[in-house]
# Entry
Amino acid sequence: MSDLTDIFIIDLRYYCSMKKDQSTLLTSDHLDQLRHVGACLARLRLARRVRQADAAVRAGIARSTAALIEKGSPSVAFGSVIRYLDAIAPKVSLASVLMEDEASMKTLSFNEQTQRARGLSKAELARLDF
# Structure
């Protein structure tokens, strides 16, 4: 090989090994979607009552990586996100989590709703009737 080819191959290897800042390559809509995925995973973890550190250990990632996943960081590999999901809720699909179709998330949503301690009396209902 010529010297020029060797330099080109070395430059190409260096460029391919460089970690790129993904946030500059994504639109704001894409970043919002990533944040939504992270928020849904955080809600699932809370609904399942799993500590972030425990989920990270089960997934084989650092707790700081788990925090980045839940923040929706674009720098985290997709495989890590899927392993984190499986560590929180085995055999649950990402699609069901994003639609908040998973049973524990439905329960969490129901418990978050404000509920009256007692029903309204007839007089209170009449007063509120417009």
